[in-house]
Amino acid sequence: MVIDSKKENKEIAKQYKELLRISYQTLSDSDKKMIRLAFDAAVEAHNGQRRKSGEAYIFHPISVAKIVAEQIGLDATSICAALLHDVSEDTDRTLEDIENVFGPTVSNLVRGLEKLSKVRSRIDEPEIENLRTMFVSMASDIRVILIKLCDRWHNMETLQYVRKEKQERIARETLNVYAPIASRLGIYKVKSALEDLCFKFLQPKMYDVIRNELELYASQNNNFIDKEKDLLHKWLTKQGFKV
Prior knowledge:
The chain is globular and about 70 Å long. It has helices spanning 5-23, 29-45, 59-72, 76-84, 87-90, 95-102, 104-117, 128-137, 142-157, 164-184, 188-202, 204-238. α3 runs antiparallel to α4 (76-84) and α7 (104-117) crosses α9. It is built from twelve helices and no strands. The protein is mainly alpha-helical.
């Protein structure tokens, strides 16, 4: 696989700008500096690493940070932790290195995420409720759970690049553990996204049937709405309204 480094670096910069745009209104100047520092640290730490898809690994933490900012609206500290969440586990950087640069709050979030990443459920787990409880109780800060849910969301979005047996294992784990936790926390957008992605890998044929039906319905519905809008526009204009 031939890598176009210039094109890839340009896309990484674009994704970083998108992350800032998503969370721009809630960020102070110091927040932006901290996020930039975390971004640079993550890029450096993951340099040379690639995902199963072949893309640079840094796209994963950036994507998780974007979900954290856009879908849940977490703070700059959480965005930094999302950017750094795999650094201590997958590179030669340590939690101490993170704490020295970003302080104890960010390093504790990363530490919590590292602990949760080691929790693995069995598909035939007879006490799945206990597993969910243990999963939540392991996190001393609720932001750890929220970031982990976003991490799982993006991993599910790129699950097609791993072997089929692993796809099914991860999808069942997500359906049994992660989606119910998102539901209990009231984050229904995350819950729905996780369940839809699980359905895609656990029932692929039925997923395709329903997706095609929904696309057809959406197309027909859009045509109906466009016609009604046109009729309404003409009637209002005739009545003297500017619309």
